[in-house]
Each structure stands twice: as structure tokens, then as C-alpha cells.
Specification:
The structure holds 2 protein chains of 2 kinds. Chain A is of the alpha/beta class. Chain A contains 12 helices and 9 strands. Chain B is built from 14 helices and 17 strands. Classes of the chains: A alpha/beta, B alpha/beta.
């Protein structure tokens, strides 16, 4: 049994593929409402989210319940964290109450690793600072696998706020391990040349970046992080870096449009594109539950 | 007391020879071959280096304000265990050392509980706020050896020029922490491929280089003596090299951790690797070594920065900057620099050179000098064990590291204040 899932960086290609296989099975069961898998019976999971979330948190709680676990959330805003309780003490407290798996989201890089080192229960990284969001990347590659026959040579263009994005980083690691080509695009202020070391190409011209793309992955403009300091206005962002139906003309005909959500409609993706047949954005959400079931099962197996 | 058969390395007097050292009444009275032992307490220093006690220009003692991290008693014990007989205490205590009363507090505390010499450093601005000048003259009178707003730069160039000019009339050097914190932003480790791999925001080397350039120019304008603290970047070294070539009174120090480790050594999210400036990439580290070798950087200082374990064992971004350094400095110098510099050059960076910058009558084994001495076994291999540190704090990235070179005895004013067990 593995204690934690902290990053895609630590996973092998085989492990990622195994997660995809397991998620497929879980998805079929959820679809058919055959939720008799009690792998997590007598297991307690707790979400510990220092940052807001709809998808990651809800899908983990549902995934836990579907597998027969006791699943609950610690509401940070009304918790002793507001009285200054440290991350480690909070984790130890949850553990003392019998939590077997903590899913943590935190605004600072390395927080999940810090928690994992200091508790003996399992820790899943639900997003740490600008570092990784491994479960998002796993559900993303699962979604791609449902639509594309192979990752080998697949062109995946990630567009937007790369510098602040743990989603981008985890996807870069995952897609590279699976043999895809990863292309980054966005304003020059939101990426940097060092990202080439992660195995990517970088463009500021979005039309060039999506040329022959099999997948275009939009990223949310994190308004709460930099309030447009990195570019003059949302309108200018949308004009130069937004993904719309014009952009799609440069990509392959069967290009997939993905986005981890939440979407700022009309900024990083036009509404028309988001609601087009190319979009698998809600498939990603659905797959999030199945993938997180697969991850929970893996940790207790 | 007589120290027999040691290799006396005294850069001030350009001496590197097997000699005996005779100490009487706390002073060095003879450095000669084959002195008779009769009637004296004898230390056999065969196979050891006998050097002036080390001077650390850059130490953070935490008294007043944070005695759970370090006291003057524990900090000076830590210094003694590292071969340091004089340490300069940075003013970022609470309250700040920005007036003569706090200087006198430290002096009296040091006299009472310190086992090595403590020289306070005054702040440049009140409360380190960068707004009003500290009581620079009165602090000088009370005994500060330099002024510094270490931890930050004085942001306002007009105020900084004034401070430099004012300090110059009292012959006080400016110890400059060079870093534009706005450019650092939320950076956590050196900006580069490794920060990208770890998912950290990066700290641009330019944040240091810009301020080094500005401070050199400002000091030239003000006619001040400028000492650059803990230089960590290649261009920083080059700027200092050029200023020195131009004859300007600019000196610089480097910390053992910056010439020993690089950013790629940060493989976990352990905040014991967090310090300001951060560990840089290999080309920067190599430039620091080159700077030491060619004499651009003439001082090794530790930036000893004790923090409690609980403060370091938290989110990297929340953890305070700094590591303890007094007890690992000498072994790191010997382990890392022996192929690059002669023993005489290494010892000079720890003794005669800082003494000269600070205008101290210390750092030599001259006849008549106060007997502040370090006795070192340069070949002794050992493993760094933070649990054996005399410092109250254990925040080091070097725990478990194999090193060469160990302090055997430290002597202050003719008295042994530390002996290796």
C-alpha cells in the first residue's frame, strides 16, 4: 500500500495507466448506479481545504461515499485554523479522530508534503500552491484516453496562466510520461523559459500554438492571484489569448476542448466554444468522481 | 599557557610554520620554535593548525526579543564550538538595535553570560523601517562596530545616501543586505529550472544584483565604506570585482552554505534549506568560489540565523529565512575550499580580513595581542550532528553531512572556552 499521492512527478507511466483503467471501471459502476463496492467500508476520509473548491472537494466526498467510506469536510473558515492552529497540528487532530485519508488543498507549495511527513495517515494532494494538482491531471488524462486511441505523439496545447497553475504543471508531467507533446501558450508574463526544462514548447502566438492540436486545455485566469497585473485587461487577454471558434480552425478537426474549471466564460474560452461539441469540460467533471474513486481504492488496497 | 608544535597560521603576520605559542595574562607573549614548557599549562597541538580566533561579521543573536531561538549565552557557546572568538550581532532583534540603550543592554548581557566577544551592529534606520536614521553616533560611542539594516535594503536612496555619509564620519562601515524585495515577490527559491521542477516561484538573481549595483554607486557618492553581505550571485561578484578594481572601498562576504550547496540540493520541501539570499544554481556557486579565489570576496561569514524547530517545520512559504552556521562553518570551509585556496587564504577570510574591515585590533597572533586563538584539526573527519550543537536552534541543512576539519580548542583572552569532546 502506498501512503500518499502527492504529485505526478512521483508516478510511473504504468501507474498512471493503471489509474485510468481503474477509473474506467468505476465510471461504469457510477453510471449504472451499481454502487455496491464497499472497498472503503470502515474508512474515514476528510477534506482539508485551505482554498475554495467545488469540483475537487465535492468529487472526493462523493467518491468516498460511493465506496462506502465516512466522508466529511473540515470547514476551515469555522475551524480552529482561524485561531492559529498550525497545519501539522490540524492534521494530527484529524488523525486522532480516526481519519484514514486526508485530502488537502493549500495555497503554498509543498504543504501536502509537509502534512504527509508529519501524520501517519494517508495524504492526497488536492492542489498545493503553484506546484501540483495530481488528481486533476489524472482525471484529465483519463478524459483524453476516452476520446483518443493513444497518447503517443498526441499534441496537447495548454493555454493561459501557466506560471500560477498547478494544473498545468501536473498535466505537463503526466502527458510527458505518457508520450504526448506538450505545448504551452499564453502571455509572456505568465510563463517562463525554464518551463522548457519540464519538456514543453512555449508560444505566445496562440494560433501557432494550437496548430495540429489534438487537445486544447484552457486554464482559468486566476483573477484572485494577480488582478490583471500581468496583463492590461481581461478584454485584451481574451483578444490575444482567448480560445474561440477562430482558434479551433488551426487545430485538428476533432480537437478536444478541456478546462479544469471554473471557467471565466468569454475570457479564456468563448461561450460558444465551451458549449460546442468539441468541449469535454463536463466529461472532466464526471470523470473526476470516477478517477477519485480509483485513487481512494489505490490508497486503501 | 603554552601551545606546542602546532602549525601556526597567522595571515596578518604572513606566518605559516610549526611554532609554539606562549600566553601569559591573556596576551600572546611569544611565538617561537621550541619554547620551554616548564611551569606552563601545555596544549599539544601536533598535527593541528593554530590560528587567530575567528571573527564572524554576520551573526543573529536573538536577545532581546526571541530568547527561545538563541540567547547570548547559547549563541556565544555555539561560536566557541565553531572556533569563533568574536561575533558581530545583527540589529534585527526586538526591539531593534537602533539606539545606545539597546547596545548597552547587549554589552552588559554579553559581559555577564557571553563566553566570546560580542560586538553589536547598529541599525541604519529606526526599527529597520527605512524611514528615519537610527542614533548612529551614540551607538558608535556605545560600541557598535558597523551599521546594517540586514534582512532588507534601505529602499529610499536619498535616505541611504545620507546614512552612508553620516556613518562615514564615524568610520562605521555599512553592511549591506542587497535585495529588492519587490522583485523577490513571492519567490521562495532561486529562479531557474529547479524552482520550476519543484513548483516554487523563483527569486531572480537580479533582485540582488540591482541593489548591489545601486549600493556601490551610492557608497561612491557618499564616500562610505561598503561591505556587501552574503553575496550569492555571479553578477553581484562581478560588480564587486569592478568596484574594487576602481579602487572603491567595497568588500564582500560569502556564507559557507552558498559555496557548499546549490538550488538542486533542495529535493524536499524542508524549510531548513530556506534562507535569504537563497541557494543559487551551480554557475552562481562557481562564481562565488572564483570570487573567493581571486580575492574579490575576502570574508567568510555565517549569517547564523537560529530559528526554533516549530518555526521551520511549517509550510516553506511561512517558515522564516535562515540557518544556523557557527558550528558548521570551519568544517565546510576546509571540506569545500581546500582544493581552491591555501590554508593561509582560508584562515584570512575568517580572521585578519574581517578585522581589517571592522577596524578591530583582533584577528592576529601578534606579540602583545589578546590571546584569542582557535586550534583546529584539519584532517579530522566527522558527521554533522545538529543534536550536538551548542546553539539553542538546530535549523541546518547539513545534518548528517560528512565533513573534514574540526575545532579542537577555542581560547578567548588566554582562557579555554571550548574543547572538543
Amino acid at each position: 500500500m502506498k501512503k500518499d499521492l502527492l504529485g505526478i512527478r512521483d508516478l510511473s507511466k504504468e501507474q498512471i495507466l493503471a489509474f485510468i483503467d481503474e477509473a474506467k471501471k468505476q465510471k461504469a459502476k457510477v453510471k449504472n448506479k451499481q454502487l455496491r463496492d464497499c472497498s472503503l467500508k470502515n474508512t474515514s476520509i476528510t477534506t482539508l481545504f485551505y482554498e475554495n473548491s467545488t469540483r475537487t472537494k465535492m468529487s472526493f466526498l462523493l467518491a468516498g461515499e460511493y465506496l462506502g467510506a465516512y466522508a466529511d469536510d473540515l470547514n476551515i473558515a469555522t475551524s480552529s485554523v482561524t485561531k492559529g492552529e498550525t497545519l501539522i497540528d490540524t492534521g494530527l487532530t484529524l488523525e486522532a479522530m480516526g481519519t484514514d485519508i486526508i485530502i488537502i488543498r493549500h495555497g503554498m507549495t509543498g504543504s501536502a508534503h509537509l502534512l504527509a511527513q508529519n501524520v501517519s495517515c494517508s495524504v492526497i494532494n488536492g492542489g498545493d500552491g503553484t506546484n501540483e494538482h495530481p488528481t486533476q491531471a489524472l482525471l484529465d488524462v483519463f478524459t483524453i484516453a476516452e476520446h483518443k486511441p493513444s497518447f503517443e505523439g498526441l499534441n496537447v496545447t495548454i493555454v493561459g496562466d501557466i506560471a500560477n497553475s498547478r494544473v498545468a504543471r501536473s498535466n505537463i508531467f503526466a502527458l510527458n510520461k505518457l508520450g504526448a507533446n506538450v505545448i504551452l501558450a499564453g502571455p509572456s508574463t505568465l510563463h517562463n523559459a525554464n518551463m522548457r526544462a519540464l519538456g514543453t514548447e512555449i508560444y505566445t502566438d496562440i494560433n501557432r500554438a494550437v496548430k495540429n492540436a489534438d487537445v486544447i486545455m484552457g486554464l482559468r485566469v486566476q483573477l484572485e492571484r494577480h488582478k490583471a497585473c500581468q496583463f492590461p485587461s481581461l478584454a485584451e487577454y481574451a483578444k490575444f489569448f482567448g480560445v474561440n471558434n477562430q482558434t479551433l480552425k488551426h487545430a485538428k478537426e476533432d480537437v478536444l476542448i478541456m478546462h479544469p474549471g471554473p471557467v471565466n466564460r468569454g475570457v479564456e474560452i468563448s461561450s460558444q466554444t465551451m458549449d460546442s461539441p468539441h468541449s469535454v469540460i463536463y466529461d472532466q467533471v464526471e470523470n473526476g468522481v470516477a478517477m477519485r474513486m480509483a485513487i481512494l481504492k489505490y490508497l486503501v488496497s | 599557557m603554552i601551545i606546542k608544535n602546532g602549525r601556526v597560521i597567522d595571515p596578518k603576520n604572513n606566518m605559516d610554520e610549526i611554532m609554539d605559542v606562549l600566553i601569559e595574562n591573556g596576551k600572546i607573549v611569544a611565538v617561537e620554535k621550541n619554547l620551554p614548557c616548564t611551569g606552563h599549562e601545555t596544549i599539544d597541538a601536533t598535527g593541528c593548525w593554530v590560528t587567530p580566533g575567528f571573527i564572524d561579521m554576520h551573526v543573529h543573536l536573538r536577545d532581546p526579543g526571541a530568547r527561545h531561538k538563541e540567547t547570548i549565552a547559547s549563541g556565544t557557546k555555539s561560536a566557541a564550538a565553531g572556533g569563533f572568538t568574536t561575533i558581530c550581532a545583527m540589529p534585527n532583534t526586538s526591539p531593534t538595535v537602533d539606539n545606545e540603550i539597546v547596545v548597552e543592554y547587549i554589552n552588559s548581557k554579553a559581559a555577564k553570560e557571553g563566553i566570546v566577544n560580542v560586538l553589536p551592529i547598529g541599525s541604519i534606520t529606526k526599527g529597520l523601517h527605512g524611514e528615519e536614521l537610527s542614533a548612529i553616533g551614540e551607538m558608535k560611542e556605545a560600541g557598535v562596530c558597523a551599521i546594517s539594516d540586514d534582512g532588507k535594503t534601505v529602499d529610499n536612496p536619498s535616505l541611504y545616501r545620507t546614512a552612508m555619509k553620516y556613518a562615514a564620519q564615524f568610520n562605521l562601515p555599512i553592511l549591506a543586505h542587497c535585495e529588492d524585495l519587490r522583485l523577490v515577490g513571492k519567490g521562495q527559491i532561486h529562479y531557474g529550472e529547479h524552482a520550476e521542477t519543484m513548483g516554487f516561484r523563483g527569486i531572480y538573481p537580479e533582485a540582488e544584483e540591482i541593489i548591489i549595483a545601486r549600493d556601490i554607486i551610492l557608497a561612491r557618492l557618499a564616500g562610505a565604506q561598503l561591505h556587501i553581505c552574503h553575496v550569492s550571485t555571479a553578477e553581484g561578484v562581478e560588480l564587486i570585482r569592478q568596484a574594487r578594481k576602481n579602487g572603491q572601498a567595497v568588500t564582500a562576504e560569502v556564507c559557507p552554505h552558498h559555496f557548499t550547496l546549490i538550488d538542486e540540493d533542495i529535493t524536499t520541501y524542508d524549510a531548513n534549506f530556506k534562507m535569504s539570499p537563497p541557494l543559487r544554481s551551480k554557475p552562481h556557486r562557481d562564481a562565488l568560489l572564483q570570487g573567493l579565489k581571486d580575492g574579490t570576496i575576502t570574508v567568510i561569514a555565517t549569517d547564523h540565523a537560529p530559528h526554533h524547530e516549530d518555526e521551520k517545520n511549517q509550510e516553506f512559504e511561512n517558515a522564516p529565512n535562515g540557518i544556523v552556521g557557527l558550528e558548521t562553518a570551519l568544517p565546510l570551509c576546509i571540506s569545500e575550499l581546500s582544493g581552491l585556496m591555501s590554508p593561509m587564504q582560508i584562515i584570512a577570510t575568517l580572521t585578519a580580513n574581517p578585522a581589517e574591515i571592522l577596524g578591530l585590533n583582533k584577528g592576529s597572533l601578534s606579540i602583545g595581542a589578546t590571546a584569542d586563538i582557535a586550534i583546529i584539526n584539519p584532517t579530522q573527519k566527522h558527521t554533522v550532528d545538529k543534536n550536538k550543537f551548542a546553539s539553542l536552534s538546530k535549523n541546518t541543512p547539513f545534518h548528517g553531512r560528512q565533513v573534514t576539519g574540526q575545532v579542537q580548542h577555542t581560547i578567548v583572552s588566554g582562557k579555554i572556552v571550548y574543547s572538543a569532546k
